[in-house]
Amino acid sequence: MARYTGPVCRMCRAEQRKLMLKGSRCTSDKCPLNKKRGAPGKDPKARGGKKSEYGIQLAEKQKVRRMYGMLEKQFRLTFDKAARMPGVTGENFIQLLERRLDNVVYRMHFAVSRNQARQIVNHGHILVNGKAVNIPGYVVKAGDVIEVKEKSRKLPLIQEALNEVSKSGTMPWVTVDVDAVKGTFTAVPRRDEISDLADIKEQLVVEFYSK
Questions:
Q1: Better pLDDT: 114 or 9
Q2: Secondary structure of the chain in the HEC alphabet?
Q3: What's the whole-model pTM score?
Q4: Which of 39, 116, 159, 176 can bridge 44 by disulfide, Cβ–Cβ 3.0-4.6 Å?
């Protein structure tokens, strides 16, 4: 499967926003944004003029896509699916992104970043309702139980990630049993519940793809 293999901190610098792509590094002094580093490129100030409407929409689309670690094709397919669903397209879109298995694994703190969660799913460490699933884009439903395989529960990277449960808790739509390394996706989150996306304007993404 195709994937981005370049420097991920460069993405955060381009957006001038923490996309939380490298787990604990993003909250440490090693984060380039904590060092007040500017946008990448030889002369980013030369590109700092007023953006067009299209440019603003494109930038928002790129920000969300990078945050969830998706390539353009799968991101667009997810949007198309959201557009066919009843209700508000933008909210449907964010909910579908949140229901991706790799994202749910990240939200349950079985991984420190979405990139790491994708790797854990790809390597076959995750069970959904007792069955192995190795597709990061698998869409989780309300009531689904996600757990780490028994032989994988002691992996240092998973144990390290689980420490975050006691520090910051979990999102309202998931519950986690740390000892069993198991969690339940209790409900599809409402848009206003996703606090770390408060600055995301998904309507701009809808406008970008609706042209």
A1: 114
A2: CCCCCCCCHHHHHHHCCCCCCCHHHHHCCCCCCCCCCCCCCCCHHHHCCCCCHHHHHHHHHHHHHHHCCCCHHHHHHHHHHHHHCCCCHHHHHHHHHHCEHHHHHHHCCCCCCHHHHHHHHHCCCEEECCEECCCCCCECCCCCEEEECHHHCCCHHHHHHHHHHHHHCCCCCEEEECCCCEEEECCCCCHHHCHHHCCCCHHHHHHHHCC
A3: 0.81
A4: 39
pLDDT digits (tens, 9 = 90+) for 63-90: 999 999 999 999 999 999 999 999 999 9
Q: How far apart are CA 31 and CA 13, in angstroms?
A: 10
Instruction: Please check whether residue 172 is in contact with residue 189, taking contact to mean a CB–CB distance below 8 angstroms.
Output: yes
User: Any idea which residue has 């449907």 for tokens?
Assistant: 92
Average pLDDT, whole number, for the chain?
Answer: 87
182-185/145-148 β-pairing: antiparallel
CA–CA separation, 42 and 23 (whole Å): 28
Backbone φ/ψ region at 23: left (φ over 0), alpha (ψ -120 to 50), beta: left
**Range with lowest mean pLDDT among 25-29, 48-52, 65-69, 119-123:** 25-29
Strand order in the sheet with 145-148: 131-132, 126-128, 145-148, 182-185, 174-177
Identify the residue whose tokens are 């933008």.
90
With beta carbons less than 8 A apart as the criterion, state whether 63 and 15 touch.
yes
